[in-house]
Amino acid sequence: MDKIDIDKKAFELVIKEEMALKDIYNKIENLAFVNSAKVLTAMQKENIMETDLLGTTGYGYNDLGRDKIERVFARVLGAEDALVRCQIISGTHALTTALFGILRPGDTMLCITGTPYDTIHEVIGIKDNNSSLQSFGVYYEQIELLNDDFDYSLIKASLEDRKVKMVYIQRSRGYSDRKSITIDKVKEVCDFIKKIDQDVIIMVDNCYTEFVENLTPVEVGADLIAGSLIKNLGGGIAPNGGYIAGRKDLVALAAERLNVPGQGKEVGPSGDFNRHVLMGLYMAPNAVASSVKMAILTSKVLERLGYDVDPKYDEVRADIVQTIKFGNEQDLLSYVRGIQKASAIDSSATVMPTDMPGYDDKIIMASGSFTQGSSIELSCDGPIRMPYIAYQQGSLTYEYGRLALMLAIGKLI
Ligand SMILES: *Cc1c(COP(=O)(O)O)cnc(C)c1O
Question: Where are the domains of the chain?
Answer without folding.
Answer: 8-36+284-410, 52-281
